[in-house]
Amino acid sequence: MINKERLLAIPELKIAGKIKQMDEKSFENYYQLLKNFTETYPDHEERLKTALQNKAYDSLTTELSAICFDLDKIFAIDLSEDCKKRIPELKSLKPEKIETFINFFTSNLSMLSIDIQMAEKEGGGDDNNAEPRKEGDRILAIDDTAFFLTMLKTTLQDTRYKITCVTSGRDALKFLDKNTPDLILMDIEMPGMDGFELAGKIREKEKYLAILNKSKVINAPIVFLTGNAKRENVQKAMRAGAIDFILKPINKELLIEKIEKYIR
After folding, report:
1. What crossing angle do the helices spanning 195-211 and 231-240 adopt, rounded to 10°?
2. 79-93, 204-218, 220-234: which has the minimum mean pLDDT?
3. Domain chopping of the chain, boundaries
4. What pLDDT digit, counting tens, does each position of 227-245 carry?
5. What is the pLDDT at residue 178?
6. 128-262, what's its fold?
7. What are the pLDDT digits (tens) for 213-228?
8. Residue 128 confidence (pLDDT) above 80
9. Does residue 136 register a pLDDT over 50?
10. Which of 98, 128, 233, 235 could cysteine-pair with 123, CB 3.0–4.6 Å?
11. How confident is the model at residue 26 (pLDDT cuts 50, 70, 90)?
């Protein structure tokens, strides 16, 4: 099933009053609508991108209308209303403005899909890790693209957070032998050792250190950096020990918001 508290914390879902009125059967039906949304959204996104690339604006309008219908069913009212306002204007907009809107819209939808999936108890997510950590401000970031890490470091340079960047899973494990960060940000697709494998190794390392009663147990929330909101990736990440996602390309405000959620 699903963690209702985490579900209520998703700002796009206007459900606080509605959930109180749902009996068990009604909530089960609502949960199924949420699940259907996360399962069908990647196909919607692919069709949107194809229509955009081919400048097939009639197909684009049809797909956006279908997405709005799905958003209404799950009470993502603001996203739906904003999209409905844009649909009649599409054909009169310049191609670059249409592309900007579609990219912004799909980015918001991807984060909504990921947030819904992260609220599911299935898949090994640990709700206890959702409590904000208050004692530190050190972040370990792992991504095989040095340019992205530089950008990430620049984004956080005026904040109180100290960020250490490495470009491989092996270097991350070496760092964790002697250091205990308060948050780990990592890419999924990396050569040699991908994010899923690395997250699993980090969690195994924590269990080993706990058995040895080591004082420096890692126990840091793992947040994946990804451009892929597919259900199988989210579920696989949760089983590996991740607690959240940040969607690429990185938005500074969202990045800070997510970090502050786990480090205070």
Report:
1. 20
2. 204-218
3. 4-118, 128-262
4. 776 778 788 888 888 888 8
5. 80
6. Rossmann fold (3.40.50)
7. 554 546 789 999 887 7
8. no
9. no
10. 235
11. very high
For residue 169, the one-letter residue type is G
Got the DSSP string for the chain? -B-HHHHHT-TT---HHHHHT--HHHHHHHHHHHHHHHHHHHHHHHHHHHHHHTT-HHHHHHHHHHHHHHHHHTT-HHHHHHHHHHGGGGGGS-HHHHHHHHHHHHHHHHHHHHHHHHTBSTTS--GGGGSPB-S--EEEEE-S-HHHHHHHHHHTTTSS-EEEEESSHHHHHHHHHH---SEEEEES--SSS-HHHHHHHHHHHHHHHHHTT-S------EEEEES---HHHHHHHHHHT--EEEESSPPHHHHHHHHHHHB-
